[in-house]
Amino acid sequence: MTLIALTALAVAIKLAGKGEEEFFAQRVEQLQIQDSVEFLGIVPTQTLEPLMREADVVLVTSRHEYPEGFPLTIQHALRTRTPIVASDHPMFTTHLKHGINSIIFEAGNSQALAECIKKIVSDAPLYRSISVASHATWHQLRLPVKWAEFIDRWLDDSPESKQWLLEQRLASGAYNSRQS
Asked: Is the full-model pTM beyond 0.85?
């Protein structure tokens, strides 16, 4: 006879940010998971990355109707090498690639989100490869121009500085080869 003891996977969720706190607090209470959920509110930048490093996964669940750029949350997570599970928001999929540097789910689909979380935490080789690729993606997203140099050139009215600014602008195409 083989006996298998199954224990529930302990999950702790830390929610950072602002918005719809009452809704989420009520939902947590309805589900009786108060001991597993912590509401952090607005988190200072200097504590954000350490929190992400402690986490197993960073979730970015934005819906398509939410007007969003490429959030700093994603950039911080890429930098910390903490795998990202993100929605298929059009602003994310330019740089986040499913199964390569992140796991992508259909926005608004909670079942797909759950499956993606389960996949990333249960597949150690996938977890490791996404972690490594996420840091490489962060390096690709970084622009080689330093702000001080940019400001110096912008303040300098010389033809050389004007030419340099033209060559360094995002629309120049100079950074296109840096993206995966």
From this structure: no
